[in-house]
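Give me structure tokens for this 120-residue protein.
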Amino acid sequence: MTKEEIYQTIHNWEQEMGEDFFDYFGASFKASSFMCWALGRGYITVEQFNQWETDKSLDSDDAGSCVYCCYGLCKPYAVVAEDDWTEENQEKAYRIFAEFVSESVSYQKKLKEFLEENPI
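Here you go.
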């Protein structure tokens, strides 16, 4: 799947289900894989990566906290963070996540399995 196909799949799933994708797919997600990838791609800084590595809270392995956060609940290492929710920043975060998935055979497989178990 291309990153655009993955983004559209995630977006469509959320629209149809009325739920946050990461609340459901998060169990299939390893924050360490994503955060190493995000650092290598320049989506986060070394400082942010180090903050994530030293965070001992449960949020540090939560997909949503690493990819996107808003409403003052942000961790300093989130790839996309904002004070108030906007569609533009949510789209940006999901497109970055879709890029990550598109470059990983393992995560494409996990996404496919998730969609089979949680069809629209």
